[in-house]
Amino acid sequence: MMRLPIAITVAVVVCAVEVALSGYQNDPKRGQSQLQARAPEPPMAGIHWARGRAPARPRGGSPNLTYHGGPVMRQGAYVEPIYWGARWSNSSFAGDKISGLLSFYSGFGRSDYDATNTEYTDSSGHVGSAVAVGVTHTDLSAAPSNGNRTAPILAEVCSTASSLVTNGYYPVYVDTPRGHAGFCAWHSVGTCSNGTTVQFAFFFNLDGDAGCDPEDSSGRHSQGMAGLANVSGHELSEALTDPHLNAWYDANGQENADKCAWAFGTPLLTFANGSQWKIQGNWSNAAFNGGTGYPNSSGQKGCIDGGNFK
Ligand SMILES: [Zn+2]
């Protein structure tokens, strides 16, 4: 009896994400054929919309996340960052981004910010708080000119990563700017030809991109690095709590970071290795129920960031 409603809910969530995305292509027919052509591709989720670009969400009902039966990342995550595109060989383009993201992922695990994800569970336990960082990869071949498809990103992950593991999370940073895309980043899940199912994510280059800029005024990072850090926190948080896109999201398909996008509670968060970052918080059902969170862009007080809001 329970299975049918759950299956329908999942289908609606996936469609909503796809249609919202194709709406930015200004050509409904092209969007439709793309949807059909990429039917075998993994769906996108946790799309980090640029400021002001998130689709309107219907109001009403509980804003809390609900559990849809799938796994969470109980072992935490094993991360191999991948930098894709010829510009990554240019030191003035790369700047502090590769070293900064290594520091970001190295300090993420067991930080108070990471702990904003651990209230969520599957049938075997909570989201894990360990984050291990493996080899950093640079692929100087041409990266896709847009972020509209998941399959090329999954293929890059499967062919580039040193260690493909089921608790792996492979963030792919391309050197191409966002252009007119409405989103800064997304995450997904897919299976490589060796049979391993992995989590992966896509990130535009955010240099000079006001629509994806957290406006970190700390002076600790370049603007482009600060932009990537904020969206990287968003996507890894969603991968931890909804790795297969069938665990924790709300009635509108929004995952824990989606619900607090572009809402900041603490000016600067300190990670386990002492590095400091300006990152949006994540939705906490417990904080919303207890009235202890800070408000998201809809005024719902369910966001925590591990800084002033735990
Ligand atoms: Zn998201």
Query: What is the CA–CA distance across the termini?
Result: 38 Å
- SSE string, helices as H and strands as E: HHEEEEHHEEEEHEEEHEEEEHEE
Shape: globular
Tally the helices: what do you get? 7
**CATH topology term of the domain at 74-249:** Collagenase (Catalytic Domain)
**Known CATH architecture of the domain at 74-249:** 3-Layer(aba) Sandwich
User: What proportion of the residues is helical, as a percent range?
Assistant: 25-40%
| Ligand types | zinc ion
Q: What low-confidence regions span 5 or more consecutive residues with pLDDT below 50?
A: 1-39
Q: Helix- and strand-based class?
A: alpha/beta
Mean pLDDT: 88
CA radius of gyration is 18 Å
How much strand? Answer: 15-25%
Task: Let me know the number of strands.
Answer: 17
Which sheet architecture does the biggest sheet show? 8 strands, mixed
CATH class of the domain at 74-249: Alpha Beta
Care to describe what's here?
The protein is α/β, with parallel strands linked by helices and 310 residues long. Among the domains are: 1-39; 74-249, Collagenase (Catalytic Domain). It contains seven helices and 17 strands. The protein has helices at 3-22, 28-37, 91-94, 97-108, 151-160, 223-241, 285-290; strands at 45-49, 66-67, 77-79, 82-84, 121-122, 125-126, 131-133, 137-139, 168-177, 183-191, 197-205, 248-249, 269-270, 276-277, 282-283, 294-295, 301-304. The strands form five sheets. Strands 1, 3, 4, 7, 8, 9, 10 and 11 form an eight-stranded mixed sheet that branches. Helix 4 runs parallel beside helix 6 (223-241). Bound molecules: zinc ion (ZN). Zinc ion (ZN) is lined by residues 46-48, 234, 238, 255, 257-258.
